[in-house]
Amino acid sequence: MKVSDPCGCFPTGRHYPGIAHLLKIRAVGVATEMDASAPWVDHPIAFIDVETTGRDPQNDRIIELGIVIGRGGMLRKEEQFNWLIHPGRPIPAESSAIHGITDADVAGKPAFAEVAHEILGALRGAIPAAYNAGFDRSFVLAELERAAVRPAEPPPAMRREVDWIDPLAFAREVYKSQESRALGDMAALLGISLENAHRATDDAAAALQVLYALAKDARVPRAYGSLIQEQRRLIRQQDEARKFWRRPS
Q: Can you give the pLDDT of all 249 residues of the chain as single tens digits?
């Protein structure tokens, strides 16, 4: 008995030419308001960096948050944002030793909940990005949850189904032979200025420029949807490789 082809495909798996233009594939992890087939450098990118009281997003707090916006492959100096935030607790000395932010610096500054809507406004309409994005993303989402901020139309950075662009995943691939792919080392390697390392806006600006520098490498996809899929593949590969790392005895 002959069975009709329910998917509109030839036996080879190719779609009939007459309906190919009607079929759309939705790339996983992309912000749906952005054209996944367009070059990602042409989309607005909100690069985010946080400084914190520690490394645990459930127990530690953000004390500084910086956002810089990139458009068309250029850092927009007029679209840079910074908030010093009172964490509601003392800043440990070991944390201050890294970023230089002390209790005196955040005295009288607003709590995260007081500036949450300003932060979301700066993130609206842009692809979220961060260097070692899992860290920054986990802190931002944890703070928003504690502040009970749930807008009817959240920006891409707040939506859990949207992946943040992470240049570190591509730096680890493109510069495999480098001993370190930390932000400061990558900035120095690529000739990018980073005068105030471990301060949120300075780190975000340098990391955005690292991302644009990596875009020149042929191994970094041009289309937004393709970039996210390749990033997902690289992160899975890198996570798997780390399982086999052994600490020196």
A: 444 444 444 344 444 455 444 445 568 999 999 999 999 999 999 999 999 999 999 999 999 999 999 999 999 888 999 999 999 999 999 999 999 999 999 999 999 999 999 999 999 999 999 999 999 999 999 999 999 999 999 999 999 999 999 999 999 999 999 999 999 999 999 999 999 999 999 999 999 999 999 999 999 999 999 999 999 999 999 999 888 775 554
Interacting residues of 218 by C-beta distance below 8 A, sequence separation 6+: none
**Could you say which DSSP state residue 41 is in?**
G
| C-alpha span between 130 and 154 (Å, rounded) | 18
Distance CA(150)–CA(237), nearest Å, equals 34
Q: Where are the domains positioned within the chain?
A: 40-236
Q: What angle do CA 8, 12, 16 make, to 5 degrees?
A: 35
Element (H, E) at 144: helix 133-146
Sign, CA dihedral 210-211-217-219, equals: positive
Task: Determine the topology of domain 40-236 in CATH.
Answer: Nucleotidyltransferase; domain 5 (3.30.420)
Does pTM surpass 0.70? yes
Q: For the range 59-64, what are the long-range contacts, defined as Cβ-Cβ under 8 Å and sequence gap of 24 or more?
A: 60/87, 60/139, 61/85, 61/87, 61/88, 61/89, 61/112, 61/143, 62/87, 62/112, 62/139, 62/140, 62/143, 63/87, 63/91, 63/99, 63/101, 63/106, 64/99, 64/101, 64/199, 64/200
Query: Do 170 and 214 contact (CB within 8 A), yes or no?
Result: yes
